[in-house]
Design a protein that fits this description.
single chain; 218 residues; mainly alpha; Serine Threonine Protein Phosphatase 5, Tetratricopeptide repeat; 11 helices; 80% helix; elongated
Length: 218
């Protein structure tokens, strides 16, 4: 109704104000978001050209979907957002879905784009992108490049004191060295990862590392 009576500038301003208010009520002022409302925030954010609202909410939804094995839904939502904004967070998220769906080359390209667009000071995201890229190259059989990328991610997590990220990198590096037959180095890295997981009470990580250690020792 308003679109018919407002000029283009007024209409765009009104849409932006509306999206900001919906974002405040449906997202900022609640403890747990409702998925349908969150998706509506993303849709309206894209229409109103409110980039940070659309991308930040979309990024959380997509990563939750990938972690819940809803890969096709994640892929489609990322495509909708990327059609409007080429953002490093969404590029990294779509690559996670593409990797599982077998779109390996698309995933590699999107990880590379995400890394190029990632701000220099966003160390957490950068470390995550490099870590996920390493996993992709490991999946493709390029173990040496994967290890190099895990080492790069490890350097970033060390510089930012990201203890959980450091443990994850050490765990994955150990797994690759074990595949190459260097069991001694793999065990040493698993023990480092185990020690970190124990220090931060990461029981899931601790269990996974103990499992791998038991297999190698056996």
């Amino acid at each position: 109704m308003l679109e018919q009576v407002l000029n283009q500038v007024e209409w765009q301003t009104t849409r932006q104000q509306a999206v900001r208010k919906i974002y405040q009520v449906w997202w900022e002022e609640v403890d747990n978001y409702i998925e349908e409302q969150a998706l509506e925030i993303v849709r309206l954010g894209l229409l109103a050209k409110e980039k940070e609202i659309a991308v930040s909410v979309g990024d959380i939804i997509v990563n939750h979907w990938v972690n819940s094995s809803r890969f096709l839904e994640a892929l489609k939502l990322c495509q909708q957002i990327l059609a409007v904004y080429e953002d490093y967070r969404i590029l990294g998220a779509i690559a996670r879905a593409e990797k599982v769906l077998g779109l390996v080359e698309d995933a590699a390209n999107h990880y590379q784009q995400a890394l190029e667009l990632c701000p220099e000071d966003d160390f957490e995201i950068k470390a995550s992108i490099v870590h996920n890229m390493a996993g992709l190259f490991a999946q493709k059989g390029d173990i040496n490049r994967a290890i190099t990328l895990y080492e790069k991610s490890l350097q970033i997590t060390n510089s930012t004191n990201d203890i959980g990220g450091k443990a994850a990198n050490l765990h994955e590096m150990a797994r690759l060295f074990a595949q190459q037959g260097d069991v001694t180095k793999a065990i040493a890295l698993y023990k480092q990862s185990l020690q970190i997981n124990q220090s931060i009470n990461n029981f899931r990580g601790k269990a996974a590392t103990l499992n791998q250690l038991a297999y190698l020792i056996a």
